TrEMBL record:
Molecular functions (GO terms): acetylcholine receptor regulator activity
UniProt organism field: Megalops atlanticus
Protein name in the entry: Ly6/PLAUR domain-containing protein 6B
Taxonomic path: Eukaryota, Metazoa, Chordata, Craniata, Vertebrata
Domain of life where this protein originates: Eukaryota
Compartments in which it is found: Cell membrane
This protein's GO CC annotations: plasma membrane; side of membrane
Length: 174
């Protein structure tokens, strides 16, 4: 049978692991924009979606961090991103919005010699798919999803996995 001091030690270890995990959830510097969970409220129409939206944000992080959370209009099908920059990591502005097919024909990169900046445009299809900014011809594309092939459940996030591993380890120690 386990003694009282040993049992208390295990409880303290478990509490410390939980505290570390919970503290990490509130850290605004490590926001995971890829872990967007679809809203549970009613959608305004079938196949509705949301995009990250901003006008002339200073960089991608600022755009995503303060993006307005609203449904795209019914006549739109894509999320569009326009990224103006002078070099790697030197954004001038980031604009993200909902878009129609015709808007997305501008996908690609163009260098403006007179102004000294490059403008890359990308479009994607899906809930908040415009997380990243285009930076070159490889990712400044008009990307459309394929038809869904099944209803595979999404993988759990790293935080949930860490919590489960931590709890499992703590239970083994007990």
């Amino acid at each position: 049978m386990m003694g009282f001091p040993t049992a208390m030690h295990h409880v303290v270890v478990l509490q410390a692991l939980l505290l570390i995990t919970m503290c990490d959830w509130g850290n605004a510097n490590h926001i995971n924009f890829y872990n967007i969970i679809p809203p549970v409220d009613a959608t305004p129409f079938p196949k509705s979606f949301k995009c990250f939206t901003c006008e002339h944000a200073s960089d991608n992080y600022s755009c995503n961090r303060w993006a307005e959370d609203k449904w795209c209009p019914q006549n739109t099908s894509f999320c569009m991103t326009v990224h103006r920059f002078t070099g790697p990591g030197n954004s001038i502005s980031v604009t993200k919005r909902c878009a129609v097919t015709e808007d997305c024909h501008a996908a690609g990169c163009r260098h403006h010699r007179d102004s000294g900046y490059t403008e890359c445009v990308s479009c994607c299809e899906g809930m908040a798919c415009n997380v990243e900014v285009p930076t070159n011809h490889s990712n400044a594309v008009f990307a459309m999803r394929r038809a869904p092939s099944g209803s595979a459940s999404p993988l759990p996030s790293r935080r949930v996995s860490f919590l489960l591993v931590s709890l499992s380890m703590a239970l083994v120690l007990l």
